[in-house]
Amino acid sequence: MTTYALGDIQGCYDELLRLLDRLRFDPTHDRLWLVGDLVNRGPDSLATLRFIKGLGEHALTVLGNHDLHLLALAADNPKRTRESSLDPVLRAPDRDELLHWLRGRPLMHFDERKGFALIHAGLPPQWDLSTALSCAREVEARLRGPDYSDYFQTMYGNEPARWSDALTGPARLRFITNCFIRLRYCHADGTLALKEKGPPGSQTRPGCRPWFTLPDRATRDTRILFGHWSTLGYAVGHNTWALDTGCVWRGRLTAIPVRREGPGEPVSIPCS
């Protein structure tokens, strides 16, 4: 059995099937780890959701910003503009089943046997592995609870920009969410720089750095697989592996085998 970690798919269903064929993925034995953003902007978010859900325990995905965006649309968040690429999901006869399944996905996964963590975007430097997992569970509990639609009404926004154990309510959940689904850059004190989106070296705010390069990051000894950052591309360093290679932007879709001794070489296909 082989576990493969894949970068952001964003509805590029045909490319997903081509990559799995290239990997000789066997859905009865192998397993997929997905860094989130299964949907949005690509040509077939509906088929992608149905396929990943249909793999059952052989696919594990964390939630990305586009996945939560879809759920916010379904929860009628008045601040969100509907995007046409998501309309087929929202109109599908199995919409409720698919969205219920998506709400049940985690924000973070950690495999003790393999020694790897899986997230979509980033972690602030103050969080160690235990804190990160605990914070993820807080948001997951709200997403899976009966009042989940209330969460989506207050999810969006850039504040608070810095972690404190004293944060409570929607502000606490918003900070946690922003780290897991939006973070690329932050400052050494953990202040998030959410408006910075370009490749390393393009940032305009003095002192902000890619989150994974901060020397005092509490998770520096944890091996982390993540996506979200298409302008970064495939990158390895600081005990992290970045897997978003911009498939939806006519880049590539990338996967790596995940083993306890370390990931194998990346396998990717071009995207049209």
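The record above closes out task 2.4. Task 2.5 opens with a second protein, given below.
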Amino acid sequence: MPSAPRTSGVGWGLPLAVIVIGMFMSVLNTTSVNVALTRMAADLGASTDDIQWVATAYNLCLGVVVPASAWLGDRLGLKRLYLASLVGFCAASVLCGVAGDLTSEIVFRILQAVPGGMLPVTCMTILYRIVPRRQVGTAMGLYGLGMVVAPAIGPTLGGYLVEYASWRLVYFINVPVGVAGVVAAALLLPPLPGRGGRRFDALGFACIAGGLFALLLAASEGEDWGWTSYPVVMLFLAAVLLLALFVVVELEVAEPLLDVRALGNRALLNSLALIALQSIGLFAVSFYVPVFLQAGQGLTALDTGFVLLPQGLVMMACMPLAGRVTDRFGARWPAVVGLALSGIGLLMLARINPDMTRGEFVAALMLRAIGPGVAMMPITTSGISALPPHLAGAGCAINQLVQRVTAALGLALLTALASERQAQLWANRTALVPPVSDPRLHEAVEHGAQGLAPYYQALALDVLAQAYSDVFLVCGVITLATVPLALFIRSPNKR
């Protein structure tokens, strides 16, 4: 982004609230749609495997769009791009809500992902343009509220709409939020003009778009196609070659699509590593806990949302406080404390079992939520604030890319781990079956499948719990292993 002058310290609060609306809407859509997939499949006549492409297609397109966001911000100006993204997201949401079959739903989700991928990069870049450097920590703490409120209420809101209304309202609810955001942005955001004449790096875009698409597709389908199958191996190989070629191209062209020279900054690299490793546990919790609560303990989507709600409230309380602490004392200690608490919370979730109460779930989730609430924004701030102003836009885009790719790859690898553990546990669970001499077993066999069903259900739930326990154990160990890296964080440059 061009190194335009920042605004004064007075008057950035309302513009910051405006961009929080955009971030809130994009994250809310993702979390609420995931809850609606089962009902959506029934209404559209799709199988469970096919309906996953509603989420997969969206994630694939997000990764492709993010690199072009920095160029569009320069070309159109950040305010115009933000307004266009909000309008486009609302229009695509309406199309998704009126889709009559699976094919059109997937196509409209791809259209929705185009503005959806631009919103996070544009919002964060605007923040670094309007907020004085010495107050970036506080601003990032407030900005983070949009990122945590949406995941907190998304499952609850989505579950309520699916259970008592229609899954289509999950999309339609974006419209009033988006309209409010457009009006507020038009009135309150400063002009933030771009710089005309910058050429589009078509070759660089082709390389990174193709590489990210291949990488995310391989990660999404590796479990179904086989991680060592020819298509998956070739996709990973193509991703490595295309991304390597992208770096070469960006270092050679006069006007790169994404200035990879930002990666030469050690503070940014450390920040990206911490974000990537912390995100593994973050996405594991958001995916596996709802699955276990619904599939394992029989909770409804709405009840599951209520169990997840307290952790969101904890993050809401922590993020503004973490921002103020970062501005005053630096980012290192909030990051260290947050990562340590997050790792401990994940280890508590590693005790997951069929008899685990809602109170135990809530306690573990709340402790784990303190981690990203305290650490995520200071870690992000420490990396991007260390960049010179002309690389801030590239830093924001790279930050979003790392989060998107980590979400896909981390969840895919954890799913592979969970599946492998379940297969092993099924093979080793013969000890749970009553001995042949046990009269209860003979009685159950006499009743056929109906008599054996309780044994099978108990066995399946025990296997599921043990597999997820191993997943959370791995995530907890990885998160705690990042604490030494956090000690290398330096205070943001406030000049």
